[in-house]
Amino acid sequence: MPAARRRGTPQPEGLVKAILHTRYGAPDLLQLKEVDKPTPKDNEALIAIHATTVSTADCNMRNFTFVTKSMLPIAKLMFGIGKPWKARVLGTELAGEVERVGKDVTRFKTGDRVVASTGAAGGGHAQYACLPETGAVAIKPDSLSWEQAVAIPFGANTALYFLRDLGKIRAGQDLLIIGASGAIGSAGVQLAKHFGARVTGVCSGANVELVTALGADSVIDYTREDFTKSGNTYDLIFDVVGATTFDRCRRSLKPDGILLQNIMELSDIVRVLWTSITGGKKIKGGVAIGNMANMGLITALAAAGKLKPVIDRSYPLEQIAEAFKYVEQGHKKGNVVITVALHE
User: pTM to 2 decimals?
Assistant: First the structure.
């Protein structure tokens, strides 16, 4: 802790726990440390965190687990080449209670129970975080526990971006989701049904029952069947896990169909540019960024029971390395939740 602080700098209120990411490598390199309790700026709310998650986005920021080889240099330029540019707290989503607000905050008040998407800014893997009131923050539905609420933002924000914003999904369209049982895929199935699409999910045989229960009209067990050989065609194919390519699934797209690619190679980016000007079948990709409006829609759907959280397993904050190890195996169902105790 610094021996001296500049005049006018808010003094810390004490120490709180946070998981610091300081080195690339095994999850065991993550460090549970005591840090200064954050102080909210005038436009921020201080949130006492009750639950967070370990998402695939966290894994990418921690050690580029799900980044393709051609995109790895770009990812390292963003987050740090030999090591992270600075020690940081990961955690792309959180649920907790507003403990205090800055003087300019009007959307929230002390005691509000909220759920938030922090995106690349992170901050969820700690006991406390400060978030701007104009960020992707919404009141938590009363019908959901802390753990259930936090299992929604990452997957739903990502699926909403790909299906609604990139794919322009419409009622009556045919959609195929590859990786339908993960955090993004499970939310995608439910959002697509909300928008009125006919949904085919692709997953392992062990997850067929789950994806069916989420509302998929049909489910393909990829260990038994290759969707590209079925003869069926789709308006949209949403590849959550990077399991296919534009060339491989071209025949499975309708004449104006779109492949939505969540995990991209550099060659895919070239295809995005090329197909955007040539007409006909296209490939699209990008990065989802949560916002206030999207979180409002997502929490409203969750409150109405139209967007149900899927939780694989839960770990306490102190065992977050084990959670990372499990997520990085690549076989989780839905979300892996981290519970945060504010007091021992």
Answer: 0.91
